[in-house]
Protein 1
Amino acid sequence: MIKNNAIVMSSATQGGPAVPKEEKKGFGKVLARVKTVLRTKRLSTSGAKAEPAATAEKKGKEAAKSTTKTAPAASAAKAVDPNAQKVPRGQLFEERAKKLGELYGLELKPSEWHSTEGHALRVEKPIKMRVHRKCHQCDTSFGASKECSKCKHTRCKQCPRIPSKKTEAEREESRKKRAQIIKDRAENAPIIPDWHPKREKDIVLRRPAKTGTQDLVHKKPRQRVRRTCCGCQSLFTSGNKTCTACQHVRCTDCPRDPSKKDKYPYGYPGDQPSKRQAYFECKACKNTFASEPTVTTCPKCFNRDTERLAPKRVEPQPDPEAWKSIQAKLAAMNLK
């Protein structure tokens, strides 16, 4: 009896066939089915995410190994040039600000610069001249290749070189000239004038545009002059002294806009004499008067020996009242 009871107890503790469970029916059965489906989905997604994470860890380890291997090679490639010189960054920024001020008129303050602490490495290299070669058959410039892009001719010794290659004697001569020029400039510094009366070319003043387009060129302001025909009141075209409407030749009666009667009282140079009014000068009393072209008698001395005045520029006479005021001021100052 005891053995049978022990066997029964062991089978119950080991999860053997126990009391049969009640089967779920209706809505409870549906909920249980949904729970099992959701549980299987979660397990599948967690397994799929675990695989990429493992592959990413492997790739990260391989990349770290490769960087550790290439780091010494990169450091060796960035070896410092033995001819490099240390230049303060503040000096470099100062030179750049000066050049920008000369070119574009900008004023850069040190507070607006970037950090100027530390030094920068600079290597002085000789100036290289760019050499061009042209094809001697079609006169086309060669590019990076030795074959002409137009006629497919291979570059040869007949193809000219720009600039031409100098001989050793010419190089020695140019060295001597350069040394002599440097010596002369050191002994007698040249004085470069801002303006010279006998200059061959006009000095052109330029200023960079604010919009970054073409430079602004300073030009002398000019006044546009218009001439009107005294017959039909039509404007003369520029460079033409004949009216296009009535074929009238420009004369001294044709009005000018703007007018300058104080400088040209007898008409403007290059105009034909007027048929309405003329200016004469008496040879006896030097009197100038205006009258018709047929009347030549001087109204002051009644002399008929007069001369018709051609259009010319006349300097205006000083105002007598202004001259008297200047003399009074000088007398009040008691200058000796």
Protein 2
Amino acid sequence: MGFLRKQKLGTRDDKVTNASDLTFRESIVPLCLVTILFFLWGFAYGLLDVLNKHFQVALNISRAKSSGLQAAYFGAYPVASLTFAGYILKRYGYKPTFMTGLCLYGVGALLFWPSGVKRSFGGFCGATFVIGSGLGTLESAANPYLAVCGPPKYADMRLNLAQAVQAVGTVVGPVLASQVFFKNVNDTDLGSVQWVYLGIAIFVFLLAAVFYFAPIPEITDADMERQAQIMAGMKEGQNGQSEEREVKPILHHWSLLWATFAQFCYVGAQVAVASYFVNYVTEVRSGTSNSMGANFLAIAQGCFAIGRFIGSGVMKFILPRKALLIFFSGVVVFQALSVGLRGNIGLSMISLLLFWESICFPTIFTLGIKGLGKHTKTGATFIISSIIGGAVVPPLLGVAADSFNDTGRAMIVPLAFFICGYSYPLAVNFYPRLRQIVDDYSGRMENAQSDDKELGLDAMDDEKPGVTLTEGDSSIEKS
């Protein structure tokens, strides 16, 4: 019963653990456990989009006011990632951060019950803020963990596959909501919302206990600095000593800063489109009910999930930066078309838009943290904090929709933000300095190892040499 033994939480960040050298077989269990977290926040996000419309009816609030849910949910992300989540991740490691995020998620879900009893929209926003804090904590740890746990060459593929599971959660959320929130109940009833979130709370508290006992290898800043040196192509000097790469301050990493800006614009626009998807469909397609609109949202989220699986496969054959450019180009085109078109054609355009959105978030993330070395954890919190865009753009879209009395025309708001975010895929493909950074750390160098060796498939059971990092020094020695 070793699984039930008391577990040690936390590890020194200046210690090389070799966890970043895990082979394919060794990384399966921790990656699968962490991938469950992606489903959870996909599910939460899918429910949120439908709650937006449900609360407009149940609580008799405007479209602009209902966006307070998104503002609370995504506004919590920078609060969490740049404060306590970042501190816990740096000080104690990944496992304690996962557990903290799950517990906050559970507490927020429990708060839905008294909010429903009081029929308080402010209470729901407060509960959603706590949930967002929990999910922001989880994302601060889970995204970089997936990116660094395993061969660096496949970081983009790993994260996109995990995000595909998250996309499945965004499909399940609206389907459940359409059957529970909008079917066979009074439009003003909130009881179903309370019971759903009570079930979520119980599940995530149990999952936090599982994570406590689960063997989750810790990956430290020292591990990431060592990996960055290797992937940068360290050369042996004439004296037999390794030449180290230049370690720059985090604010000198322009790829990270540009990725953070692009992620802010992209997430804000993506969340705005999803939040007002049901409004858009019921307005541009006559005879569409709220329940049918939720089902159409589930179909669109299905396109989103399919896009992530396809995008992950595409990255086996082309560089991630090129895949991002292709998909983001599709985002801009289909969003522009959805602004002016109506009826089934408009519905088709906005549904296909979600297909092209699919790989944008995870690919911007992995490209943005490439080459950060010991700054990887901090850089990850920067990009996760940019998710606050999801709190900024939806209210702007809501105000525009109320002003125009037309959600279709108001879709020009997320279009403007998509265009701003489009600057990053253009930069990493056509600006030589940024292109060199992401290409070097994609493992596509001339001296890169073969695919099988990178995956560990040819030596799954071979003993790997130990590596130590001298405290206070960044020199690397094989033991």
Protein 3
Amino acid sequence: MTKPERSVPGPTDIERERANLYLPGEHFRYPFLGWIQLEMKEAEAIEGEAPHEALFLVLPLLHLRDLLAISQVCRSLRRAVDDDVLPWLNLVVGEPLNRRIFDDVLIRVTSKAQGRLSTLALIGCNRISDAGLLSLVASNPFISKLHVPGCTGLTPDGIVAAVEVLSQEGRRLTSLHINGIYNLNPDHLQMLRPYLLIPSSSEDQGPDQLYHDFIYLSRPTYKKSTNRPMDVDICPKCNQVRMVFDCPREACRMRPQARECRGCYECIGRCVECGTCLTDDDEDEQQFDAACSDRLCSKCWLKLPKCNYCNRPYCRRHAREQISSPVGSAGFLCSSCYFQHVQQ
């Protein structure tokens, strides 16, 4: 007669949750939120239990995706996030949420500010339309910073209409970023400038705007501290509405033709590291090609580590493309040298 096997009890619900402490997410995970969820289960059972007061000091410092993730932990944290107005006064929508934000979702999120929204930064939100933006600013008339770089679903006329709504009753915007909006022309800039706190003349618009501070032109980002109230201008070289950069080199500032090296990124070549102007007829500065096809000045070229084969460096934003050298040698290889010398 065989002895019956003893049944082993399966894992409890709490053990299952401790084995998987990551909240589901398509682009990001929060391991600490799993522990918070377990600790808050007991608190939810007690009626009237509220989060610690220190939580309300942390919420205004979190990004939008962090606020949305915390609100999914439990009912208590959801009420804390929804009832606190301060975290929603400065709304920045960036990656990865920008690809999933539509007009109705954005209006629902901004409604948490209760009409007191101060900063609205939509970074690459190409699914936002003119009608959605106009409806949003109508319910939030106190917006002073409007950043919509890379929002290709918006049109210049829609931005002008939104700025006009925000400028009612004598109010003016302190910052407007519209780089990456299609079909902008000088007439649109002339209509927008009276609504901003900047001089009407394009010759004096505040501190210099440097190329290496805005190096990610194809991937717009949000900067809390910006040099100029408007990020685009009329390029003196091609008369197109683009981001216009100044030269940080002292020699260019001292000579009478200092304004000659001021232009957009297509008219004036610049060092990707320091923003210095690079021209073929410049005898004072020699330009070098990086392994990532960007251009570098001689000073920046000397500072950066080089490929073991071609002696070309990667700029800092492409440094992750470096390939470690084979075992027994130091340094790195660029991608082209790796496939040419190692793979063959």
Protein 4
Amino acid sequence: MLPEALLCLLSAALAAAQSRKILSLNSNSAFSPSTTPTPAVFDLPTAANLTISVALCSATSSLPRFFVTNSSSSGVPGSGGGIDVFEIQLTNGLGSWTGIFDDGGVLAVEDLQQTSFELGVSDQANLSQPTLPKSSPNYTLLISPTNSSPSLTALPQTGCMLSSQKSTGAMTNEGLWLRDASGWRTQWLVEALSPATNYTAYVIQDSTQVGGPMYFATKSASFACPLVFGLAYCPSVAYTVPLPPPPASSNSRVYTAANIPEQITSPLLSYLTNFTVSLSSFACGRDMYSPIVTCADCQRAYRKWLCSVTFTRCGEASPANPNSFTSTAPDTAATGLSAVQPKDPKNPLAPQKVFSALLAQPTDISKARSPTLPAMGSAYNMLLPCIETCTAVDRACPALLGFTCPTSQFNAAASYGVGYTDSADGDQDQGATGGSQDRWGNIWCNGG
């Protein structure tokens, strides 16, 4: 029989464990000084990729500290440290931490004082995203062939005039979408446009405010790559990707999160989770690694780069300049600036030509840039990702992660579009075009 003192100790431990507040998955819980459990310890649910979000709701003389562990053997995490114990860094009263919780976990709060706070637990992407607006502005999308008569640009550029014009195409999807850190925007999917045609577009708000004109060109009738968009884990992907046609069972001609092959998403989410765990483990504790960028900036830049290299972008040369791209892939040791071509020695005063970062790709899937993409079954042209998608990660992330990019002095031009946004020497916005695309519909490299 166990001694009475030991029995009391076991009973106290069991009572403390049973009194812990269990945080439900994909929920937000608010706590005040009167509702916070004592001690402030919370059980976390099981999830392959769990994000914990902290928000302070009141001001105190000193900030509370939030500790988390995803190890079943670490007990209650705290400032004493230990194996698999991490502190959630707070910036302006907000903080988050993402990791693998195969066996659940524990969150504990120290130095709480009389602070009110909220805890969010989610296995969904974009937990810290801006709040979805309750309503969106009354936008109208207007599209017309650029060479139509009369041209939209020749009309009075007023909301009342443009609102009276008939739009081309069939709008099959419209909704709010959180593409990047700039916040929510309205996104349209338009079908039934003519191939190889230049179009002019306007966005009109409340029949009064006019945005545009904007210009774009549709692909040729023989262009085979389908459109991919609407992926919460890759919100900036909204372009054509070398994939076979969507399965007939999906009743769609485009890929979305509902029908994208799992062989693409599973490794991508695994890479993103592992990177986030490494980032949270080594760089996002109580000390900041940079006064300029944060772990959120690093994770956002890495996700954009990962998505741009995973979802290879298809492209084709402009019908007006069918030879304005490199028809054969450069050697892996290729050097030099890919954006600006050498001047014509017969006409040295002529401006240098700017070529898109397009490379012809064979049908052999083993030679594809992204090995997780299923074979499309035909040759295509790949639009290389802009080198800035890589250097943005290098700049935003702590050096200890070891993320590096190729340089223009060596082989960067073999796998990235170099010299479009930034110069070959890295001077910001001093490249040949100043961006990955322009308002005229030219896309020079894949900016993600």
